Each structure stands twice: as structure tokens, then as C-alpha cells.
Amino acid sequence: MGLATKKVNFSEIVGSPSRFLAFGFGSGLAPKAPGTCGTLAAVPVYLLLMDLPLVAYLIIVLILTVYGIWICGVTSRYFAVPDHPGIVWDEIVGFLITMIAAPSGFIWIIIGFLLFRLFDIWKPWPISLLDRHIHGGLGIMLDDVVAGVFAAIIMNIMASVV
Looking at per-residue confidence, does 8 or 139 come out higher? Predict the structure, then answer.
């Protein structure tokens, strides 16, 4: 079954903690732009974590990334598609990576959101290469991890010149 034709209902998602997380607490069920909705779901997660010491923030993001490889892989296999559009845990982690050492202020959350979405959608090299050639849970996660790194670099450069 193709990516666009696989219908998913809310009870399928809440019936499994791994699917619930992979679908970004249900945000991946959005009929349009599930990746953007998943990134929006990442904002409150970031708000909960942003005041942590940098080392604690990094450890949590690393744990969420490694766990994400597993939950995205399990969910992808459950729905029998390589990367179901509703799987948005990768967007959540990608946004959290974007926000590593981000300047404080709501404007930087917006800038981080926009930069991450830009890199996630545009997929410049090597993101596009990773997206095409690495599959499974690792493949689902890795392109968004790199998009988050690119967005974080650009945002921190922007912050240093403001």
C-alpha cells in the first residue's frame, strides 16, 4: 500500500505507546502537513526542556534520538510502509536538535521552527542522500537529525551577528 493511501485512525495510535510517540502524540494524524504539525508538537516539548543545563538537554535529546530510531522502525513496520507521513517523531527530535544552545526568546523558537522546516523540506545535500539511501528507523530519523544540525548552525550564526 502506498504512503498516501494508508489510512490510520486515532485508536490505532493510542493503542501503542511506540505508535503514539512515533505519531507525535497524535499530531502526525493531521490530514495536511503532518511534518509541520509534528514540529509544532515539538515546541511544548522544547519549552519543558529549555531551562535544563546544556549537558542534561543534550543527554535527553540523545536518548530521544536513539529511542526514536526504534519507535520509528517499529511503527514503520507495523504500517508496512518505509516512512509513513504520519511518523513525526523525527521532526520532534530534529526541532529539539535545532534548539540546542538556542538564544532565549520566542522569536528564536519561531526562527528555529522555520529553519528546521526549511531544511527538512528542502533536503539539501547530504540530507537528500541520507533520505534516499538509509532506510528503516535509522533512515527515518537521520535526515531530520542532520536537518536539525544544519538549522542549529544557521540559527547560531544568525544569533552571533544580531
Answer: 139
**Do 58 and 124 form a contact (C-beta atoms < 8 A)?**
no
Distance CA(68)–CA(53), nearest Å, equals 22
* Domain containing residue 53: 3-26+34-161
Provide the angle, in degrees to the nearest 10, between the axes of the packed helices 89-98 and 106-122.
130
Nearest in space to 2 (alpha carbons), one of 63, 82, 75:
82
pLDDT tens track for 4-59: 446 788 898 999 999 999 999 999 999 999 999 999 999 999 999 999 999 999 99
**C-alpha cell belonging to residue 161:** 551577528
Position 7, amino acid: K
Residue 89 near residue 68, CB atoms below 8 Å:
yes
Contact in structure between 120 and 159 (CB atoms under 8 Å): no
The structural domain count of the chain equals 1
